[in-house]
From TrEMBL:
This is Probable malate:quinone oxidoreductase. HAMAP family: MQO. The keyword Oxidoreductase applies. GO terms for molecular function: (S)-2-hydroxyglutarate dehydrogenase activity; L-malate dehydrogenase (quinone) activity. It comes from Microbacterium bovistercoris. Pathway: Carbohydrate metabolism; tricarboxylic acid cycle; oxaloacetate from (S)-malate (quinone route): step 1/1. One of its GO terms (biological process) is tricarboxylic acid cycle. It comes from the Bacteria. Its cofactor is FAD. It catalyses: (S)-malate + a quinone = a quinol + oxaloacetate. Its EC number is 1.1.5.4.
Length: 485
């Protein structure tokens, strides 16, 4: 007889971990099963070395404040992403207090967020961005300087042996963070296991089929021994990174029509030399090269993984047809359907800058990659840095355009939902999953809301519209998460 459960989670990353923990808090009587095809959770995009670890709050990411057709900068996306990250902090704070998560410093650390630009055009852009954001409540305390002595105090590695006469500028927000999403994911899954949730690793979901009663039959296969199996679920969440597209296509839901994915990989330069690491405590972002996707914005980052500090620079784009780091070589081909082929071809023909950028990145030798780092850090030496393969991102294509962000794709009846896209991704997992709860469980959500407000007191509020509330919320989560400026 086929096993029946309330919820199946596909994928052992931060999204499934967040949704599973929320559902267990709200409905402890529901039976939840999670599937992960690899030998452990948090081994793909949630793994600390596969992502930037930036608590994306738009403090330093320039692509969140684009110029409009009127040439003025637009702050709406930056404010929205900051709002979402504050909600993430609130939920993590609640889970720390409840003992669901370990001590805050096991997964989140205070790390200033900086932007550093060179050249008159980018300096002018950064001046305008600072003027636009400095008085917004969620961006309070942002600093701006074109003075080499000040920037040297903020991040000495940026200024040592820098060429004189070169225009440059920087902003700094001491409220920034570094997040080990691998540790965060593992802790949430550990809690779920201890609470009776069945987490099955080395198990690959092969097919999703809707039964006549509206439930979903999830067919899977063990990756060790190849034993097949199936399970029935009232609700299925597909949080499998780039694999989500293929599973949702196979489910037959009409909402996935028109979607495609373009895979982009990456590499980091990494150093753990304590003498170098000690001179830099910040995440420093700059402008993306022409044609580069937002996830390829260059940055020199302090990382704290498993309690040890290092520096990463990159990412350098790579290309693989795989939708996951541990995916298949035919992924980019097997996604093609009559309903998305035209859109995908249009993306190929209208994104020549992206193709040019990717080719130029692929031609870079390790020495050329260190030379790129020297634009940030003039004293960088080849022997101090090693190349590290980052994660694989499946960028969403739809309506003939590459879309940047993270998008919920759900059936009309809410019985199945999946997540497509990339950055800001993990940083905004809590608000994305809260939105999914509201969208997929409309009849239950009203009853859940009081409990959700206990976990996230500012749920539904626009923090940036109320300075006093914003200050109180940020101060409370900073204290709970031990984030000291």
């Amino acid at each position: 007889m086929t096993e029946s459960v309330d919820v199946v989670l596909i994928g052992g990353g931060i999204m499934s971990a967040t949704l599973g923990t929320l559902l267990h808090e709200l409905q402890p009587d529901w039976k939840i099963v999670a599937f992960e095809r690899l030998s452990d959770v948090a081994e793909e995009s949630s793994n600390a070395w596969n992502n930037a670890g930036t608590g994306h709050s738009a403090l330093c990411e320039l692509n969140y404040t684009p110029r409009g057709e009127d040439r003025l900068l637009d702050s709406s996306k930056a404010i929205n992403i900051n709002e979402q990250f504050q909600l993430s902090r609130e939920l993590w704070s609640s889970w720390v207090k409840r003992g669901i998560l370990d001590g805050p410093q096991t997964f989140i650390n205070s790390t200033p967020h900086m932007t550093f630009v060179r050249g008159e055009n980018d300096v002018q852009y950064l001046r305008e961005r600072y003027a636009l954001l400095k008085d917004e409540p969620l961006f309070a305390g942002m600093e701006y300087s074109e003075d080499s002595r000040v920037i040297n105090q903020w991040a000495p590695l940026l200024m040592q042996k820098r060429r004189k006469g070169e225009p440059f500028a920087a902003t700094r927000s001491v409220a920034g963070t570094d997040v080990d999403f691998g540790a965060l994911t593992r802790q949430l899954f550990d809690h779920l296991r201890e609470s009776g949730v069945d987490v099955r690793t080395n198990t690959e979901v092969r097919k999703l089929k809707r039964d006549k009663d509206g439930s979903w039959r999830v067919k899977y296969r063990r990756t060790i021994g190849r034993a097949p199996g199936d399970i029935k679920a009232r609700f299925v969440f597909v949080g499998a990174g780039g694999w989500a597209l293929k599973l949702l296509q196979g489910s037959g839901i009409p909402e996935i029509r028109g979607y495609g994915c373009f895979p982009i990989g990456g590499q980091w330069l990494k150093t753990s030399d304590p003498k170098i690491v000690a001179q830099h405590k910040a995440k420093v972002y700059s402008q993306a090269p022409v044609g580069a996707p937002p996830m390829s914005v260059p940055h020199l980052d302090t990382r704290v993984v498993d309690g040890e500090s290092s520096l990463l620079f990159g990412p350098f784009a790579t290309f693989s047809p795989k939708f996951l780091k541990n995916g298949g070589m035919l992924d980019i081909v097997t996604q093609v359907r009559p309903h998305n082929l035209g859109s995908m071809l249009k993306v190929a023909f209208t994104n020549f800058d992206l193709i040019t950028y990717l080719v130029s990145e692929l031609l870079k030798t390790p020495k050329k990659k260190v030379a790129t780092l020297r634009q940030f850090m003039p004293t960088a030496a080849d022997g101090d840095w090693e190349l590290l393969q980052a994660g694989q991102r499946a960028q969403v294509m739809r309506d003939g355009k590459l879309q940047f962000g993270t998008e919920i794709v759900a059936a009309e009846d809410g019985s199945i939902a999946g997540l497509l896209g990339a950055s800001p991704g993990a940083s905004t997992a809590p608000p994305i999953m809260l939105q999914l709860l509201k969208q997929c469980f409309p009849s239950e959500y009203a009853g859940w809301e009081p409990r959700l407000r206990e976990l996230v007191p500012t749920l539904g509020a626009k923090l940036n519209d109320d300075r006093e509330t914003a200050d109180m919320a940020m101060s409370a989560t900073a204290a709970a998460l031990d984030l000291t400026a």
